[in-house]
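Researcher: I'd like a structural prediction for the single chain below. Treat it as a standalone chain; there are no partners to consider.
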Amino acid sequence: MYEDFYHFTGLPFLLTPDRRFFFDSSGHNRAISHLVYGLSQEEGFIVITGEVGAGKTTLVERLWSQLDRETYVMARVVTTQVSGDDLLRLTMASFGLSDTQGADKSTLLLRFERLVREHRDAGRRMLLLVDEVQNLTLPALEELRMLSNITVDGHASVQTILLGQPQFRPILASQDLEQLRQRVLASYHLGPLTEAETKGYIEHRLRLVGWSADPIFDEDVFPAVYRHTGGIPRRINTLCSRVLLYGALEDSHRITAAMVQATAEELSADLGAGGVALPRNTRDAAEISSAELDLLTARIEALERKSSRHDRLAKHLLDLVEALGEGKR
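Model: Treating it as a single chain, here is the predicted structure.
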């Protein structure tokens, strides 16, 4: 809806990772450098960690878009808490080996070795991407290490990129994973954007969909967005998308920090946070402090504003449906 109001060519703040929107912050540039260095070693593991929504997947999508498809074959596994054998079968299937369920482990490994040789003979390298690696069990991680030990004509069979949340780092540091840790050739933790980078990130995504100063953003909008999101790209996308919807529903061609504040409060309430605690049963309602009353009043006002915008959104949608119906007659 708001993309039409502001004459955008698309939605600038989708949550789905999209390499077209890659923003080269200092952290993302350093992460790319670690990935490129790791790939140049042609063996072992590359580890990239970061908070949920920090941009790890977009980072790898960007790298993948720049790799020669004639040189690399990439398989991707998004993990849950699977066993070592299940992870092995998922990996084989991701590389295109079918009918893995009925085969025993030795048969699978022999088939995998033949596949590696075929790719090597054709001049291709096999790259495995394992996402959400913090969910893997120790036996599953050990299975990945064993897979990396397979060599064909003196060359490593597969190189592995491990993507995970920060809690994977203490897991990797454990004594149980000493052998895997010794095979990590590059490792980087992707942190949040800075306040200045947050502004650059927002403007970058807007420009990619044809933004030309409509809407105008007040300068204090960007510090407000940073304050409410901590510089995490996915949180920025969520907040900015809702702020632009707010602006469109208000027929506003100017985005203000007050809009950011109100939208952030609504998002917090939608997620079950930020509500005002009511008095306990042991207290009388008259005992509400003036501070609590102010908070409660502000919350009610925010809900009223939200309800009003929802009403306008429903009207816009009904008008759109009606217009589409008339167009079909």
